Amino acid sequence: MTTPAQADSATVRLEATIGGCELKMSVGVPAGPTRLDDLMPLLQILSDQVVGSAEQEAAQRGVCISCKKGCGACCRQLVPVSPVEARHVARLVRDLPEPRRSEIVDRFAKARRQLEAAGLWGRLNDRQDWPEEGVSEIGLEYFHQRIPCPFLEDESCSIHLDRPMTCREYLVTSPAENCGNPTPQSVEWLPLPAKVWVAAARCESAENRERYLNWVPLIQSLDWVAEHSEPEAEISGPEMVRKVIENLVGSGNTSLHS
User: Fold this and answer.
1) pTM for the model
2) Inside any domain, residue 1
């Protein structure tokens, strides 16, 4: 006999091959209309598994990850997050106890003032119009502002377990000190077969705008969320998982059962 609680959920058995990474898991998801936000724990698990597989492959080649606690250079970069993660960040801040919440909100506000003074805030708002060849240049302009992530504490992430997937998926194998003055020649990134943050962003990108990926600068998350309403739950949990995996895998081998 199926209880009401059981009827409201569905078990999805997921099998996917992404590059050399094999994903096999069973997850419980809402059976009815579901928002991408409801799958944040799954997105984080997928991100960690893809990265873990890439790290193992690198280790087999004798390549080590140089990122370590206390190395916060990348925490001053322009961090792109998917819309669902911007909403997640806003909820994290909203749920902080006082006075911690006000402290973090003030850091976001201070960063905005600095970016406005530098003429960068408006350019970040117009990111959909950036020429492809200008993205790296704007990223370097942002980095030269040396604005620390509002969650950075003693050069370490204070929300490490809930850090954005972009941060989870950004690892380097070059010397850590090179990250203080990054160039394409001095920094080597860990190659990933796919990026979950990109898959999540594609889930909320307009189908008629193939070039433009729907993303939000982490530093603008609170402002962006205040200006955009949350999407409606329109498809079932299993269908939403399928959408994420299809965006993640692309041409990989995938099977999904519910």
Assistant:
1) 0.88
2) no
Pull the structure tokens for residue 187.
């920094």
Contact criterion met (CB below 8 Å) for 240 and 39? yes
In a domain, 220, yes or no: yes
- On whether residue 165 sits in a domain, the answer given is yes
The tally of domains found in the chain comes to 1
Q: Please give the angle made by the CA atoms of 66, 182 and 218, to the nearest 5 degrees.
A: 85
pLDDT tens for 130-163 read 887 778 889 989 999 999 999 999 989 999 999 9
Q: Report the mean per-residue pLDDT for the chain.
A: 87
What's the domain range around 235? 6-257
> Is 44 among the domain residues?
yes
Give me the residues paired with residue 217 across strands. 80
Tokens of 165: 């997937």
Residues 6+ apart with CB under 8 A from 154: 70
